[in-house]
User: Fold these one by one.
Assistant:
Number 1:
Amino acid sequence: MILGLDISTTCIGYCVYDEKNILDKNAIKLEGEFYNRVDVALKEIDRIVDGWKIKKVHIEDFLMKFAIGKSSAFSINKLIAFNSILSYHLYKKNLIIKRYNVLTARKVLFGQAKNKFYKNSKEFVLEMLRKKLGQEYIDTLPLNTRGNIAVESYDINDAVVMALQK
């Protein structure tokens, strides 16, 4: 059983995959101060790992460069610390952990990492998952109050990309 994770300090997308089917996918929303977020994340991840008897964890590797206008040294350091705490916790549970660069993972799964015809990478991943898994996959993603795909769905999609890696 594989757990795919897209870890951030505000929302963790996750996907449980048995190497044939997606069995569960969702997002863990996090709020409050840093250590409260760590506590909530660890409890939820333990619930998933223990409940599904996870053996492997595929994690989207954290950023290693600045995204102009989107990241600061402080936010990248916070993300690395958060990701490292959760990764160490999973390691201590004797799970097999693999990290994947997001662009490499997309290229392996879809044959390309991005496409200039999509307004952003999140829309590209959504469309590629629709093509790979079918409309029924898209229909099960969380919706916002307006009936559109909720923001956390994009974190779930990235976790699905991680789970489907070999």
Number 2:
Amino acid sequence: MCNIKITDPSLKAGEKSKKSINLFIFGKNIIDIPQITEVGSIIRIHRGFAKIHKGKLQLNCDVISKGSWCLFSLNSANENAKYNPVLYSKKSFSFTQADKKILDDYRDFSHTILKQANLYDEVSTFSDAEKKKKDFDVVCAVLSKKKDKDSKGIKVKLCDSTKLVKLKLPQKIADKYNFEANSCVRIRCCNYCEKSVTKLMLEEHSNILTIPEQAKVAQDLMKKIKESKNKDVTINSKIHLFYLDEYVITKVGEEGKGKKPCSLKNLLEDNKTYPTGKIYIVKVSPVNITPSKEKEWKSTKGKKGEGYNFEIECKDLSNWEDDKTYSLSINPDDSKGFINASIKGEGKECIKKLKLIKKLLLKTNCIMEVAVIKSGKTLAIKGSKLEVDL
């Protein structure tokens, strides 16, 4: 049996008691129960029935006898399959043109509710839950996800605006939940490990739902994380930016078009896969910008005229959690193209703006996606340019 909170346009969103009702689905086996992984999913119930329990309306669907259900995703990645259910309880299902219109309307309704409503009133923060010493519900962001060699499962790093925690899951359990980096999730019934308040554990009755990024609760959470006074939270939350195109402040030239980003670590250590003399794409977060040879910013003569010779120290997802940084150099000829979108002019004025760019890159949440040419153990930016307004 499972209990799902559902709503539709007939319920008055302004009245707390009528925001949602409970749907109980009864089955003989686990496959009779819908495995819902995302808030806002659409479920169609066939041959369900309503009843009053303790003065409240509830819906029941008994799959053991005559009931059935179809589960549809909120967003369909494949336009041709947008009307196909993700799961359904029986061997087959019927779906008419009228059903398509109803599904479209409910998807629009779901998007509207997600953008307007505060979905969860009774959730804890990671910090508050330390004092309770009992199961708690939480809405948090997934910062990273990687394989755990010891348990042959996965390790995820989670955070809200107050604290960072880690969660380790065996692969069988991990497959059940939709943990993806840069996602917002709601975890029901979790607790801290006995020996550590930085490690989370799930109970047998725990449940995890992904919250769509356009939902109000997800956007509010990300805003709180960015404004957090906890240094560990703000530093680690920047990993989100690698997945968001809106924070990329560079444009790759013709040399790198159509190529996918590769990790700095692999690029410099794997010479067979990434031979020298070729153009590659990297996606990095700037850590520092310095002149290559001079202590001061000075224009330098290149083959094509005056330019600037400097290095950008950076990190990417391959070395985000260690202290190591990698350098991307830029020669005078490529530097003018790189900064041309933002800097016009020569001499002192140009250098002044270059320093302003350095200050901007290091203080603002931003990501650079650039084409680089590999030469031995060095990487030089090639045919890319900044797209920031000063």
